[in-house]
Amino acid sequence: MESVCSTAEEPKLRHVEKDILIPKIMKDKAKELCSEQVKDFTKCCKDTGFLMVIKCQKENKLLKECLTGYYRDPAFYEECKAEYLKTREEHRAAQGVPHQKHSTST
Description:
The chain has six helices and no strands. The protein is mainly α and about 110 residues long. It has one domain. One of its GO terms (cellular component) is mitochondrion. This is COX assembly mitochondrial protein.
């Protein structure tokens, strides 16, 4: 019974969840939060074409700083982790409902 309580408090994350799925949420949210820098960098790249590597260094630097600030923020990681765990729990509950109905009718 104790393992159920500790699992509810501190859910175990698989490798793919920790290293791929949660960082993907972080990346998507950080892009939204840095939307102004993303917009400026995108505009610069479109306007300059092949010279974007040279001409868009300032915009690229500002975008990287903004994104990196979020990626390195432990509170932001925990926020994205909580969002992922909530979604995972909802998904598991939705899958569990039909399965439980099937097993109770047997």
